[in-house]
Amino acid sequence: MADTGDTADTGMAAMEATRVLEVMEVITVAEAMVALVEDTAGDLAAIANHMAVCRMTANTSSRLSANEGVRGKDTLF
Fold this sequence. Notes:
By secondary structure, the chain is mainly α.
């Protein structure tokens, strides 16, 4: 088979294809890391929300207990 001079082009194309695959691998890893961060952020938001509800419930309970037995002050509203 005669050499057409395309050997250098083939080598460059192979190197470029390898580089593209490496970049795609980096992107895939980065996407996986972002997904973990998003999950963690969602978990932290849920925890903060739960804590706020607990705080409001505790405050409401304390106010109701403080007003227990006081005429006209048995509710918050």
